Amino acid sequence: MEKIVVNGGKKLTGRIGVSGAKNVALKTLVAACLTDEQVVIKNVPLISDFMVMVAIIRELGGEVKIEDHTAYIRMKKFKTDKITLNEAAKIRTSVMFLSPLLTRLGRAIIPNPGGCRIGARPIDRTVKGLRKMGFEAFYNSKDGYYYFKKNNNKKNDSIVTYRFEKSTHTGTETLIMAAVVGKGKTILENAACEPEIDELIALLVQMGAKIKKIEYRRIDITGVEKLHSAEFTIGIDRNEIVTIAAAAILTKGDIFVKQANDVDLSAFLENLDEAGGGIAKKDNGIRFYYKGPLKSVDVETSSYPGFMTDWQGPWAVLMTNARGDAIIHETVYENRFGYVKELKKMGANIISFNPDVKNPGEVYSFNLSDNNPAYFHAIEVKGPTQLHSGVVEISDLRAGATLVLAALSATGESAILGAEHLDRGYERLEERFSSLGADIKRVKK
After folding, report:
1. Which residue range is the domain that position 376 belongs to?
2. Has 33 been annotated as catalytic?
């Protein structure tokens, strides 16, 4: 186990680039397995989650070669239809391999997916969609595996329409990939529409898929006989940009993030501007800088184009530095305030509560049946508060970035335990912050 040690209060300045988007990179690995030809993915982030997905591909019989930040993937032939629990338990996107398994073998055995502990995160909406598309699905509670197979009685030229009950990023991508190969047409309604999904669609189209976004939250997929090789470059990571932007303002610094205007950060930038954060857009990036005390701004997370759930942790730290009280309402996951108790150890004044919501079934994206009365869906951050040093522990990936930001803005030396969580989504984060002037290092326990 490793920890991050931060001596806070150092102003961060300089220019920095951003890694390829994690939430695209992992899905491109799955998409590459839809063909028996080689697929080349450029600008991949060298993070632990990516390496777990690579390990799963190799376990299934595929070949993966990584040179610098380019991955060469070829799944010439699957040697098994089953993903073992050992690797799959580490990462939620493992469940998406059911799509290439079903399209190429007609069957798949997938364990209940793992990943960060931020809620139940069930795949019931994906399973319902696959059944509508003509696949059989059975969950064996005794061994913890889902068993899928193609229903040969389904008419190959049929048109299937499936409407997601609630928006699901992973579910939308999984069903798109399950529909691209074969005869017939699949129409997905109330589909997720994040920019990362557009990137996956762009890769699949390059591979020969026929996919069209007909209107807002509707995607039409016409099956093709076979996909082929392609070369694709991943765009930059929106979550990493937000982390860097928050670091600049929290440390009263000035950081230029190269290519930051290449992705949609509208919901974050609008709120940051309202709070008084410094933003200067240039042709080749965005400058984030401290221009004075922040004021409190309430946010509510939601699916795209709303304020991302991944941004609420960094926003909470920003609001500890703001004048007034700020409400953060989490509607995507039922249990995503695990970092709050850690921020309190560093002096944050935060109250957790459940807001009075008249129509929870419409407001919340998670299944209400999975909710626990012990979970809180909102916090009130009272500021401004000068955070101080502390020993804190990371509970999940985004909570890790949140605690690093808190330590950068705090007085004194802080120790952040569980650095391996950070590695799931950030490549050498401590080294990159160090290049901007942070006093930060990784220490083996």
Report:
1. 2-19+236-444
2. no
